[in-house]
Fold this protein.
Amino acid sequence: MGRDERVEHDGYIDQEPADVARQLHDAALLFAHGLDRLGPEDWERTLSVPYPEIAVRTLSWFAVHTLHELRHHLLDIRRQLEHA
C-alpha cells in the first residue's frame, strides 16, 4: 500500500492542516454514507484485503477495522496538536 512512501510522495509536511481536516471530514462523510446504504445481506459480502498479506474478509470486518484505524489515527493527530 506504500503507506510510508506516501508520506514523502504526497508531501504531508507541506499540507495545510485546515485543508487536511476538511478532506478527512469529507472522506468520513462519504464512508459513513456508503455504510448507511448497505442492507443486512451486504455485511457478509467478502473482499480481498492486500495488506499485510492477502486475506479474504467480510465487509463487516472491513468497516470495523477501518473505524478502529480512524480512531487510532485521530488519537495520533490529537497528540501531535498538543505538542504543536
The mean pLDDT is 88. Residues 59-82 form the longest helix (24 residues). Residues 17-82 form one domain.
